[in-house]
Amino acid sequence: MEEEEMQEMLGDDEEKVEVYGAKFFGGAAEKELFVDDFESTKEYTLQPLSTLFPDPTVYPIAASLNLAINSALADEFTNNNTSAVYTPGTDWKSPLSGVEGTTLLGRVREFNGFSRNTLKVGYYSGERLGDDKVSLNFQLGFNYPSFWSPRIIITGKSIVTYTPSNDCGVKVVSQEDVLDMDLTACIQDQILPKFWDLYHLNMAPPAEVRPVVKVGGVNPFKGYEVYESPEALVVQHEVWDDLGREGKTASSLPQGMFSTNIKTVGPKKDLDYVTGSGVEVEIGREGGRGWIKWEVEVGSAVMSNLAEGLKVGDGVVGGAVKSGSKARVREARVYASRAFQGDPQDRGVGKVREELFERCRRDGLKAKVGEDGRPKFFYRYGTAKTCWVEDGLGMVVWEWRLKGFRGHEVCMELEGT
Fold first, then answer.
1. What is the set of domains in the chain, with CATH numbers?
2. Residue 279 and residue 338: Cα distance in Å, rounded?
3. How far is it, in rounded angstroms, from Cα 277 to Cα 393?
4. 269-326 pLDDT tens trace
5. For the whole model, what pTM was predicted?
6. What is the spatial distance between Cα 268 and Cα 62, in angstroms, rounded to a whole number?
7. Which of 131, 268, 325, 398 has its CB 3.0 to 4.6 Å from that of 237, i.e. a possible disulfide?
């Protein structure tokens, strides 16, 4: 399947800037100016957490649980009745519970100490299962205590049965945590040191990598892999792409996605930011005009600061905004992935897409199509580390890697298998 060509860029006469002394060091006397033509801002939109809950009656329950858990993390209860949400009599079943009889809030404090006070956890969406029962999606992240300090992320659902309470909103009668994947396999996959994390250890800490489940066995001759990805909290941003393929607009995140700044130098530098991964790009056309959509998986650093809402970028972008930044819950999905070492707008992408589509069709896999009737392709960066603090996305680190080891992927969503 041939990819439709993007609009060509309007000429190639970008403004150049002379670099004094460059010619004495072997460089050209003129260098391209790789600085955005706008100033970075701290402007943001505060998106209420309730917007992520289709059923408005479920949100207050998640808010009560978040308050109780984060009060426990702070080792102090901001409200004397907050601890009443979970009581020693609460029936708690979870792979995270440890020894029998451990209370949830006690386990939270214990685990926070184990992770050197780096635990971040929160409920960000959910649905109602009955009059007194809800299912809540959670995301948990922490640093494993070792010299390279890998970031561990665990996701899943909590099935909560509750009774109303005048003191603390709700009182949990029972809670059962169901993880998106086996706990041991999840941690083992993330705890082992990765070469490029160690190589860049002094530049940025190891990134959170959301666990996915590989479908089927390893077959090097297949030419692609299939993965199941659970639900994820993401920030989405869309712009019109009037520069076309040669403009390489998709090769960096737009400034409008950032909601804060992170200082990495000076006496007041931020030392507690959390790095993440999961930067995706989708490219398409609408009404004869090209567009680019970014989706970034939200780092667990924000999970302890969801009471007021989720801060998403609201700054100026280098292009026409199609749809500003907003948080959403991306549904669970199945997708096929094929390695690709280039950028998302390289001309070679079209051929890789075609090969991926044909190989999947040959093996009986059906591509999921979008509203335009075309297969839903997307591109995943392997070298992007997003950097998060409680106030949201503040920075992206683009790692240098040897060609052939960049870890980029061209992906295609599949119908459920």
1. 42-46+195-414 (3.20.80.10), 50-189 (3.10.450.50)
2. 16
3. 12
4. 777 899 999 999 999 999 889 999 999 999 999 998 888 899 998 755 555 888 889 9
5. 0.85
6. 34
7. 325
